[in-house]
Automatic annotation (TrEMBL):
Pfam family, one: YjbQ
Classification via SUPFAM superfamilies: YjbQ-like
Family matches, as InterPro entries: UPF0047_YjbQ-like (IPR001602), YjbQ-like_sf (IPR035917)
Entry similarity comment: Belongs to the UPF0047 family.
Protein name: YjbQ family protein
Length: 140
């Protein structure tokens, strides 16, 4: 079994849902050595998350942001944790709902994503800063 691990720092992005599949692939070229295996991508933050969804139509990403902004609104007077502003606690809640990692099968040296699937960085803060990922690939 081979195991490769690579950190990746993503540049700061505005709040929203952003495709990062190509950045992940560029960061771990050793994936080409894996015929059958898995790739885990983990985000090292509590106010941003990762998911896999539609990679072609950008309106899907806009609708994701619209939905989560409605489902987890800012300025709720019941939030106690607001040290970094009104988007602070909602960002933590959204990150917990979405998750901190995705796992994708690797087949013949490539991510075995479906034809319309891509990996999203879900940025839940207005000014979240650069985001750190840890990519781990393992297999035969």
């Amino acid at each position: 079994m081979k195991i490769f691990q690579q950190p990746l720092q993503l540049k700061e992005r505005r709040r929203g849902f952003h495709l990062i599949t190509s950045e992940i692939m560029q960061a771990i070229p050793q994936i080409s050595e894996i015929k059958t295996g898995m790739c885990q991508v983990f985000i090292q933050h509590t106010s941003a998350s990762l998911t896999i969804n539609e990679n072609a139509d950008p309106t899907v990403r806009k609708d994701f942001e619209m939905y989560f902004s409605k489902a987890v609104p800012e300025n709720d007077p019941d939030y106690r944790h607001d040290d970094e502003g009104p988007d602070d606690m909602p960002a933590h809640l959204k990150a917990s709902l979405m998750g901190s990692s995705v796992q994708i099968p690797v087949r013949n040296g490539k991510l075995a994503l479906g034809i319309w699937q891509g990996i999203y960085l879900c940025e839940h803060r207005n000014y979240g800063g650069a985001r750190n990922l840890l990519i781990t690939v393992f297999g035969e």
